[in-house]
């Protein structure tokens, strides 16, 4: 029996200082996430929000969590069981630096299996 591995999912990006999910701009990414979560219906995931490097750590910690919660709310609205979804806010994205640390690449939420 071949067991399929949970795939890497695309990030959902956010506008500057926003925790609103742009369901039109990121429809493909969101549809992919929903499809995978429905296919892997027994897999729990964590949604982690990130921010760019502008602003204070305290503010960005809150914003990153609100971004994760916004993606969770969207997924629940698409029929994904909320009990499978945990959220966390990572604050300023540590994977980006320099100019990239102030771009949309840093302003995102990622969905990964636990």
Automatic annotation (TrEMBL):
Keywords: Cell outer membrane, Membrane
GO cellular component: cell outer membrane
InterPro entries linked to this entry: Bact_OuterMem_StrucFunc (IPR050330), OMP_bac (IPR006664), OmpA-like (IPR006665), OmpA-like_sf (IPR036737)
Localisation: Cell outer membrane
Main location class: membrane
Region (Disordered) location: 86-114
Domain OmpA-like per the UniProt entry, residue ranges: 1-114
Gene3D superfamilies, alphabetized: OmpA-like domain (3.30.1330.60)
Keyword field contains Secreted: no
Pfam families, per the entry: OmpA
CDD domains: OmpA_C-like
Protein name: Outer membrane protein A
UniProt lineage: unclassified sequences, metagenomes, ecological metagenomes
């Amino acid at each position: 029996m071949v067991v399929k591995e949970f795939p890497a999912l695309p990030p959902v990006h956010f506008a500057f200082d926003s925790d609103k999910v742009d369901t039109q701009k990121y429809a493909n990414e969101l549809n992919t996430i929903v499809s995978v979560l429905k296919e892997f219906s027994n897999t729990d995931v964590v949604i982690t929000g990130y921010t760019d490097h502008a602003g204070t750590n305290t503010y960005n910690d809150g914003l990153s969590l609100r971004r994760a919660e916004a993606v969770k709310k969207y997924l629940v609205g698409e029929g994904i069981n909320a009990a499978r979804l945990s959220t966390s806010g990572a604050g300023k994205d540590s994977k980006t630096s320099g100019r990239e640390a102030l771009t949309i690449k840093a302003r995102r939420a990622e969905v990964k299996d636990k």
